[in-house]
Amino acid sequence: MENPAIMEMTASRRSNFGDIGFWADRTALHEAASLGRALQVKQLVEDGAAVNMVTVDNITPLHDAYIQGHPNCARLLLDAGAQVDVRTIHGSTPLCNACAAGSLECAKMLLEHGAKVNPSLTALTASPLQEACIKGNADIARLMIAHGALLEAFDLQFGTPLHAACAKEHVDCARVLLKAGAKVNAAKFHETALHHAARVEMVDMIELLVDFGGNVYVTDNDNKKPIDYTKPGSPSEQCLQYYQSTPLSLQQHSRVALRMLLVGEDRHVAQLQQLIQSGASVNIVAVDSITPLHEACEMGQTQCVRLLLDAGAQVDARNTDGSTPLCEACSVGSFDCVRMLLEHGAKVNPTLSSRTTSPLHEACMGGNADVVKIMIAKGASLEAYDLYYGTPLHVACANEHTDCVKALLNAGAKVNYARLHKTALHHAAKVKSVDMIDLLVEFGANIYAKDKNDKKPIDYIEPGSPAALCLEFYESTPLSLQQLSRVALRTMLGIRALEVVVQLDIPKQIISFLCYH
């Protein structure tokens, strides 16, 4: 067994060696971070372990924590001074590792700590966005793009992130990239994303790329078109044969042009207006039933949305997943687009399918409390149900959007509503948000509620953590009579509580307390 005294350096020596790249085989801190042993990581850090110690290939404990997807260990290391953009011998940063592991929580954490979304690349390095596309996590790809990730970052093995997504058969990632403006015909050695899609025989991917303007005739270094990589008689070959023999209609060409314009800034509004005036159909749909209005809303292009609506775009058009333009606008948190759609009669509560989330759900995922409030004010259903999360309150808690949680609770959302017996408090406990736990309990959340695994909220938290101490306090300390009275009033009156309380002939201070102001 290795001597801990040799494996670890004291705090006094850390500044002399650990933080400048002194290397060892692997320290106890590397192992603890890799295995997700948060308590051991905490103890080692408190005992003076060097958080920036590197191995011979320049891997730090932070790299290990992220490549294995252990956010608790990573948070401890970052709080102890771990370098957020340290590189391995191959040039990968912890953010590259988090994206490769597919951990949205880890990726968010690093960005909050200032991680570079576009680190300089070496011949052996893939960008964080490329790693997300190789893994196939569309949510992480969307997060990277929102923080300015380069859509055309180049990797020697695959090419651009779009190439990586197509080669790895990740249609959702490809769609995210294309909607963000990725160049559909960008080439690596003359090979385009469509060549990759043809190689993996993905009809859905081929249709998506062609719909965004993919060139079916382009040839690579071997003078081969995409169709040359498909099996004779296969669905993908038949699909490409169709596109080769059937030129795009004027409407389809117009739609491709519209998409290209919508990716740009508002300076393209005049061009879009000219295109519409020349006869482009504003309601033309792709194979996934997405209209230009869907895309304009998803990009938050307010002026383009206005032009399309004024030109007769259908305000409640649905894509194949059942999402309306209002869902897209809520998802990206574009208050102006949301307000404009509502003014044009968009349904705030469209009927839901098994694959559809409501606009309010989308707003809670996006985390824009102002959008949540306007949706509630327009009558959004507080208990609309999504098969994946549950209610909008569950979504807001799972995504750590405390302001959205407060807006929902103030509007009368049921704090103990359960999905598979899991309540909002279970979600808040899982993300270890003390502020959210406090808020939910103040509104009457049941700290003893058990989910389908027979676990209470506290069972999802590490013993000794702030969130655990918070729930332990509430388990041992009953709510005061004042708090119980407020909860009882809210439970009895539901969403009418705010309307009724403000009309009572009682001191304003009591009204404020009862209204959670």
3D architecture notes:
With 517 residues, this protein is mainly alpha-helical. Among the domains are: 4-228, Ankyrin repeat-containing domain (Serine Threonine Protein Phosphatase 5, Tetratricopeptide repeat); 482-517. 50% of the residues lie in helices and 0% in strands. The chain contains 31 helices and no strands. It has helices spanning 4-7, 11-14, 28-35, 38-46, 61-67, 71-79, 94-101, 104-112, 128-135, 138-146, 161-167, 171-180, 193-199, 203-211, 235-245, 250-263, 269-277, 292-298, 302-310, 325-332, 335-343, 359-366, 369-377, 392-398, 402-410, 424-430, 434-442, 466-476, 481-493, 497-501, 508-514. α24 packs parallel to α26. The longest helix has 14 residues, at 250-263. Mean pLDDT is 84; it is low at 1-24.
Query: What's the oligomerization state?
Result: single chain
Q: What percentage of the residues does DSSP assign to strands (E)? A: under 5%
Classified by CATH, the class of the domain at 4-228 is Mainly Alpha
Name the poorly predicted regions. Answer: 1-24
Largest sheet: none
CATH architecture annotation name of the domain at 4-228? Alpha Horseshoe
Radius of gyration: 26 Å
Distance between the termini: 59 Å
| Number of helical regions | 31
Annotated CATH topology of the domain at 4-228: Serine Threonine Protein Phosphatase 5, Tetratricopeptide repeat
DSSP E strands, number? 0
Shape: flat
Structural class: mainly alpha
For this structure, what is the CATH homologous superfamily of the domain at 4-228?
Answer: Ankyrin repeat-containing domain
Helix and strand layout, with pairings?
Elements: H1 4-7, H2 11-14, H3 28-35, H4 38-46, H5 61-67, H6 71-79, H7 94-101, H8 104-112, H9 128-135, H10 138-146, H11 161-167, H12 171-180, H13 193-199, H14 203-211, H15 235-245, H16 250-263, H17 269-277, H18 292-298, H19 302-310, H20 325-332, H21 335-343, H22 359-366, H23 369-377, H24 392-398, H25 402-410, H26 424-430, H27 434-442, H28 466-476, H29 481-493, H30 497-501, H31 508-514
Helix pairs in contact: 3-4, 3-5, 4-6, 5-6, 5-7, 7-8, 7-9, 9-10, 9-11, 10-12, 11-12, 11-13, 12-14, 13-14, 14-15, 16-17, 17-19, 18-19, 18-20, 19-21, 20-21, 20-22, 22-23, 22-24, 23-25, 24-25, 24-26, 25-27, 26-27, 27-28
